[in-house]
Amino acid sequence: MTDAGEALYEIAEKIFDMESQADESIRDFQQRKKGHIRIHSSETFGAYYLHNIIIPFSKNNPMIRILANILPTEQVIDNAASLHNDLGFISYSVEHKKLKITEVLSDRYVIVAPPEHRLSKKEYIEAADLKGEYMVMHEKESATYRVMDNFVRKNNLNTFIPLELSNNESIKRVVEQGIGLGLMSLHVVSREVASGHLAAIPFADPGMKRKFYMVHHRDKYISESLRNFIDLIQQWASDYRAANP
């Protein structure tokens, strides 16, 4: 495409975005306490955190319909950039000229082990503790895999990955059976830890944290209901950080 063609394409995109925002503004004025919010989220945030926001919001705003879908992070980003969602939640930050990306939450990474495992009674995990261990991991494209891969390379560890699975629940079930150790956010495994089915050991390194980000189009029209939802997210995240320092 020529420079002139690229410039024309960018102008056409901006006109389309402006038309979309104008339509949303008119609908918001007409509907006010009605309407819907389209949310796309990556797997971990959508499955383990998002309900903490949706439930109280829906109780206070029964006429606002929440449409929530769990999608791969790349698709969440693409949909936000093309105005196909109102809000997205992703597990790593990106640079994108069309998007506003805000960190909303960080949670401690923990090593997940069966209660009888040699590491389960440790207060903290040091890098050397994982030498020679089997790790059950998310697929290579995931944020968790990237974190573990960087940790292994940084500390020159030799770990073996016998299984790569696509969701946290599958990983937890496999770890329970003693196939290997898992890496996940503390909140994701809190129920199994409370019931005694799994142990969660935090890292000695305080930098081992899982971060989650809220994303939306920079030119997105923020309706009253969407603003209320965003405010609730920020309040919940603040409360969560205070309760889980």
Description:
The N and C termini lie far apart (51 Å). Strands 1, 2, 3, 4, 5, 6, 7, 8 and 9 form a 9-stranded mixed β-sheet that branches. The model has no long low-confidence stretch (mean pLDDT 88). This protein has 2 domains: 3-105 and 212-243, 3-Layer(aba) Sandwich (D-Maltodextrin-Binding Protein, domain 2), CATH 3.40.190; 106-209, D-Maltodextrin-Binding Protein, domain 2 (3-Layer(aba) Sandwich). The longest helix is centred in the first third of the chain and has 29 residues, at 3-31. Helix 3 (51-60) packs across helix 8. It has helices at 3-31, 43-48, 51-60, 73-81, 143-154, 168-176, 190-195, 224-243, and strands spanning 36-41, 65-70, 87-90, 99-113, 134-138, 160-165, 181-185, 199-202, 209-217. It is of the alpha/beta class and 245 residues long.
Topology of this protein?
Layout: H1 3-31, E1 36-41, H2 43-48, H3 51-60, E2 65-70, H4 73-81, E3 87-90, E4 99-113, E5 134-138, H5 143-154, E6 160-165, H6 168-176, E7 181-185, H7 190-195, E8 199-202, E9 209-217, H8 224-243
In short:
With 245 residues, the protein is α/β, with parallel strands linked by helices. It folds into two domains: 135 residues, Periplasmic binding protein-like II (D-Maltodextrin-Binding Protein, domain 2, 3-Layer(aba) Sandwich), CATH 3.40.190.10; 104 residues, Periplasmic binding protein-like II (D-Maltodextrin-Binding Protein, domain 2), CATH 3.40.190.10.
CATH level 1 name of the largest domain: Alpha Beta
Q: Count of helical segments? A: 8
Series of H and E elements: HEHHEHEEEHEHEHEEH
Major beta sheet, specifics?
9 strands, mixed
**Under the CATH scheme, which architecture of the largest domain would be assigned?**
3-Layer(aba) Sandwich
CATH topology of the largest domain: D-Maltodextrin-Binding Protein, domain 2
* Number of E-type strands: 9
Give the averaged pLDDT, no decimals. 88
The amount of beta strand, in percent, is 15-25%
